[in-house]
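User: My collaborator sent over this chain with a note saying "see what the structure looks like." That's all I know about it. Can you take a look?
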Amino acid sequence: MKRFVYLLFLALAVACQPARQLEPGNWDPAVRESLNGLMASAKGGYAVFDFDKTSIVNDISQALWVYQIEHLCYADAPAHLFLDGVPDPDRLLPGTDVSFAQMGKVLQTEYKMMRAWKNQDKSWSQIHDSELFLDFRARMYSLMVGMDEVFEGSVSYLWMPGLLAGFTEEQARAVVHEAILEHLGQEKLAVQQWFSPDGQWGGPVERGIYLSPEMKDLYSCLADNGVDAYVCSASLELIVEVLACDPQLGPGLPPERVFGLRFAPADHLTAVYDSTYVQPIGPGKVTCIQTFMAPSHKGAGPVLVCGDSNGDVPMLTAFPDTRHGLIIDVGRKADTPIGALAAEARAADNQGKYLLQPNFATVPGAIVGGGI
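Assistant: Without extra context I'll predict from the sequence alone. Here is the result:
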């Protein structure tokens, strides 16, 4: 009897323990207070996070893109001319008489020459100092930026993961892991100017990715308070998993709670997206939550949704069960859908449904290829 009373007392003591709260860190005090209040009473619920520029500072797909350029790390790039996913290669790049197809052929030629140098034991330092490499990386920048200027939608954002084409999934994960090791850390955040020797191509490129202690603490606090965290990203699922599922480098989520873009199944990765799966872009993020997350939570919507861009607005606004929408302020324009939600948060002094949190690390310079 005494043992039963003791165990009952112990269970009641555990149940009555206050919810674990976020460390103050660099949280806006009102945002932190609202999140702590949510976690104190949301046990059994779930939270959904965008990844790029929300869970992390900067963009993991772009970090991989930079890594692949600097290490000439492509499986079959010469075969596809770096143009997989370009809707109409005969269109001209903005303000030039050069078509996407012509740019692709130049990139293929430059790539082959530099790979030959590497096979001849030239050092990376020698290659990176060459005019050929400077031209190559600047052209890659102009190719990426030109896509979104010429074609509707986020063509470049779908194009970047396609540069993994030809790798097996295991090989691709190894490449992504190396890219993360090279780019992860607040001290690695920077903006570089990538211009060709003739000045015709190039522009500012963000480098580095950073998982802030505050965001890692939020993921951990949710878990400790019985709230399941999910990622719903418009980056390639494979890429996001490598960081999101790493308990040391990332938040350590189980893979079944990470959702992103998916290629069609194949022995080697292709740049062809799976047509049987609703890709989580914009409204597709709502479909992803309804299809893969809500059924595990009695059909309920998420209690917390976190995002930074217009592509996150559908999931930030779709669910009546959502008690708070956390918006990471990365400087989106005021006359955009995400800007309107940010304005609502400001007007309520972060006391309402939407909470506006300043970015946890800011690097001056242009945002290129930002999260969607």
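A starting point for your reply to your collaborator: The chain has two domains: 21-57+211-358, 60-207.
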